[in-house]
Amino acid sequence: MKVLKLFLILIFVYIGIVVLFESLLGYFQPANQNTLVITTTDEDGNTNDRVLARLESNGQLYVAANHWPRAWYTQALENPNVQIAFDGEKEAYLAIPVTDEEHDRVNGENRHGIVFLILTGFPPRYFVRLDPRDEGV
User: Fold this and answer.
1) The pTM is what?
2) For the domain bounded by 2-132, which CATH number is listed?
């Protein structure tokens, strides 16, 4: 019984660490030279900004849903017309969900370390390719 109790305490402590880490990351949204800001639109027409890591593979630009909170990803799937701000410039892009071989390639080129995976609770990872689009489209 003591072993079960200790195990449950450890599980709850771990869940608390994941929730705290994800909450702080979402609140502070740290940015650097390897990040960009994606602007998505929700079903009510409200725009939302999220700082994401900028990934590149085969000359293409990608972003990944690496965390449990991923409203931006759902919004990008529902309305793939997004804005990307990087290096002080904002441009229009089309968000294309990535699957199969392309997903495996991008994931293989942009692996996360074990510490990141532990702190985020091992969330599933989804990629979006960002294709530039004309403003008139």
Assistant:
1) 0.85
2) 2.30.110.10
